[in-house]
Amino acid sequence: MQRSRLMLFVVMIASITAVVSASAQQSPASPPGTASVTFADGKTVTINYSRPSMRGRQIFGGLVPYGQVWRTGANAATSLKTDVDLTIGGANVPAGSYTLYSIPSETGWKLIINKETGQWGTKYAESQDLARVDMKVSKNASPTEQFTISLDKTSGNTATLKLDWANTTASVNVTEKK
Question: What is the dihedral of CA 8, 12, 18, 22, to 10 degrees?
Answer without folding.
Answer: 150
